[in-house]
Amino acid sequence: MNAETKKTLSSYAVKIRMGIIESTYGAKAGHPGGSLSSADLFAYLYFKEMNIDPANPKAPERDRFVLSKGHCAPGLYSALAYRGYFPVEDLPTLRHIDSYLQGHPNMNTVPGIDMSTGSLGQGISAAVGMAKGAKYLGKNNINVYTLLGDGEIEEGQVWEAMMFANQYCLDNLCVIIDSNGLQIDGACEDVMNAEPIDEKLKAFGFEVMTINGNDFDELERAFDAFHKCDKPFGIIMKTVKGKGVSYMENQVDWHGKAPNEQEYNIAMTELRARLAEIEEA
């Protein structure tokens, strides 16, 4: 990846993280940890990878994205806002009773949301249906991307969807797993160990790559491989939960709580400093 592209993506990733903090602080609730770990992916998808148009969010030929780990809506909303689907200034209204930005993605109220999600395990089923639909209609230019959490894949429905993807040769489907090692009740390996995730995906007929999901060169390498693959494709992203905010990193407590005023100020100071560092480089 050239330096200018990496700089642009890095800048957007920090802005997305700032939006996550702004929205969860504004809501006094939400899920910052897994949103922050996925911020680099959101930046890559929405500013480089996907064929989308904020001016025409329902364009029939667009790529689709399904946030299967729907509680990480703060990250997706922030990416959509910075991509131009709705005003960035609306992010702090997250979860407010009169806001269109509710705690889980709602395709009926939020521009750019392709599927309403929230019940863990179900998003990937919608994604495989979209991928199969595109194939059925001969729309070979449409790709479908879905993001799951490593805790989420404890759901059996996830693996039924994987079987479906293999059965119907959905080479237009990219399944991404945010493997940050933590879920609401603790370390994934202690709650319900899904490892080896890569071998499970391979057994279900997927081509698989394991990468550092907080590294843009690694993300580019994985998506380049997806486009060359003739099978359903799986990306296992090793990430840091809470990435970008020092006191949240690798701390399970930040799975599902909002920063207070002091914590908000610390996080925003760190992120503004990081953004200035990128822009001055």
Strand segment tally: 7
Amount of helix: 40-55%
The gross shape turns out to be globular
Mean pLDDT level: 97
General description of the model:
- 44% of the residues lie in helices and 12% in strands.
- It is of the alpha/beta class and 281 residues long.
- The strands form two sheets. The chain has a five-stranded parallel sheet, with helices on both faces.
- α6 links the parallel β2 (144-149) and β3 (173-179).
- α1 runs antiparallel to α10 and α3 runs parallel beside α4.
- The longest helix is centred in the N-terminal third of the chain and has 25 residues, at 3-27.
- The radius of gyration is 18 Å and the shape is globular.
- The two termini are 16 Å apart.
- The model has no long low-confidence stretch (mean pLDDT 97).
Task: Summarize the topology.
Elements: H1 3-27, H2 32-37, H3 39-49, E1 64-67, H4 73-83, H5 123-136, E2 144-149, H6 156-167, E3 173-179, E4 182-183, E5 186-187, H7 188-192, H8 197-203, E6 207-212, H9 216-228, E7 233-238, H10 261-280
Features of this protein?
281 residues; alpha/beta; 5-stranded parallel β-sheet; two-stranded antiparallel sheet; 10 helices; 7 strands
